[in-house]
Write a structure and sequence with these properties.
With 442 residues, the protein is α+β, with helices and mostly antiparallel strands. 23% of the residues lie in helices and 22% in strands. It contains twelve helices and 19 strands. Helix 1 (18-31) runs antiparallel to helix 2 (60-68) and helix 7 packs across helix 10. The longest helix has 14 residues, at 18-31. It is elongated, with a radius of gyration of 35 Å. 21% of the residues are buried.
Length: 442
């Protein structure tokens, strides 16, 4: 009771008692007709009309109408979304409308948060809500939030967040013998079988980013590709099985794209040897969920051989001393971010180039297979991520982007006279002779 006026809060079912309530509301509206709203300092959208209100129209008549009619939060939300708003904060003691607002914002990808929560009304809860907005990419004036208190901003590390897996990777296993095949005993190929009508071989396998996680670290314009070194590795492994030591030539015709989900089947055909002992090879793939009568994509063709005059391996004197004498160190700090800007995404498994030096026309590099994949290096002839990183020495001296048009990148697509003298390496020393023609982009 104040100034002789008795106020009482009454809750009634308006639909059932409208005849009794309407006269009361009309009398109330008339009694408060002289009470006028002031211009609002914060823009407001009415849940009665769904339109903006300036303040003076928020009189007794408006609020009596608000009491009579349903709260049309949907109208207000549609009006705000039409104006381009996508962040909604429910300022209340507990978020009641956050859930229906979130459901209504699914198609527009809006962000809805509360402010406080029941039994969690401390300032920390409000700060946590502001943190949610910040991590969603919406600016927060932290100077206003913290006021006179000093708040140091912690700088994030410049490298991508990495983690180490502590559980064992499940290796794919299949009883290929029951299908009349022999195991290829190789990570990227599942089975091998000699052809009955010739001295040829057929190798088959299944590739996916779920079974070979390191492949997901090689992307070109955000698309996962099996690196050219991976296709070379497949041919080297097949050559070892049929007794060939050298990939005389290998030409890549089309990239081998891996889907985000699912897998691709691969077939590697090794023909019978010709009169000189050379074997033709061809690599094909097809999506695992493709129809059985669907076409296969040809990715590479080449030739395997075993040269009679093949030189025995010997240590290259240029690579025995490390670092190389007189070498000028090359700055590799922004190498991989710079390649990412060009469209070449190298994840942790492929960021193996750790040192690079230049001595005259030669470029030297040291490549180390990251620990996340080095444990399996012995299963490969030479791990594709390791050999691919050896080629990054070209990028270290700027030769991987010479005269490359925007939207294009340079990838290895042709190989010749490749002979592997040692298997299972986890570290390489690289020497590239850069000719004058190469240095000018020719």
């Amino acid at each position: 009771q104040s100034d002789g006026v008795f106020c009482r809060r009454v809750e009634v079912d308006y639909a059932s008692h409208s005849a009794q309530v309407d006269p009361i509301l009309a009398s109330l509206s008339a009694s408060l007709a002289d009470v006028m709203g002031q211009p609002v300092s914060v823009p407001m959208v009415s849940t009665v009309t769904g339109a903006r209100v300036e303040g003076p129209e928020l009189n007794a008549s408006y609020w009596c109408q608000n009491l009579r009619e349903p709260v049309r939060l949907d109208r207000a939300l549609e009006a705000l979304q039409a104006e381009g708003h996508g962040v909604f904060v429910e300022v209340s003691a507990h978020p009641v409308l956050a859930m229906p607002l979130t459901e209504a914002c699914v198609e527009t990808a809006g962000v809805v948060v509360g402010s406080l929560r029941r039994d969690e009304g401390a300032l920390a809860t409000l700060h946590r809500t502001l943190g949610v907005l910040h991590t969603q990419g919406h600016p927060v004036d932290w100077g206003v939030v913290h006021g006179e208190r000093s708040a140091a901003i912690a700088a994030l590390p410049t490298y991508a967040f990495q983690r180490q897996r502590y559980w064992l990777e499940a290796k794919p296993s299949a009883d290929v013998a029951s299908a009349g095949l022999s195991s290829a005993a190789y990570p990227l190929l599942g089975a091998a079988t000699p052809l009955a009508d010739s001295d040829g071989f057929l190798f088959t396998g299944r590739l996916s980013v779920s079974e070979h996680r390191w492949l997901a670290d090689h992307t070109v314009f955000d698309t996962v590709l099996v690196p050219g070194t991976g296709l070379l590795e497949l041919v080297l492994a097949a050559g070892r099985t049929v007794g060939c030591t050298t990939v005389s030539d290998l030409m890549l015709a089309a990239p081998l794209v891996l889907p985000e989900r699912g897998a691709v089947r691969v077939q590697l055909h090794v023909e019978a040897p010709d009169g000189q002992g050379h074997r033709t090879v061809a690599l094909y793939s097809r999506a695992e969920d493709a129809p059985e009568d669907g076409p296969w994509t040809a990715h590479a063709t080449g030739m395997l051989s075993s040269p009679e005059d093949e030189a025995s391996p010997s240590a290259d004197p240029r690579l025995q001393a490390w670092p190389p004498a007189g070498g000028e160190p090359l700055d590799l700090t922004d190498l991989y971010p710079r390649l990412a800007e060009q469209g070449l995404g190298y994840g942790p498994a492929f960021q193996g180039l750790t040192e690079a030096f230049r001595v005259g026309s030669a470029v030297y590099g040291r490549v180390v297979l990251p620990a996340s994949v080095s444990e399996t290096s012995g299963e490969y002839s030479i791990h594709p991520a390791l050999l691919d990183a050896a080629l990054h020495t070209l990028a270290a001296v700027g030769l991987a982007s010479v005269d490359t048009p925007a939207g294009e990148v340079m990838l290895p697509f042709a190989w010749s006279d490749v002979t592997l003298h040692a298997r299972g390496a986890a570290e390489l020393r690289v020497c590239l002779e850069v000719s004058e023609a190469t240095a000018t982009g020719e």
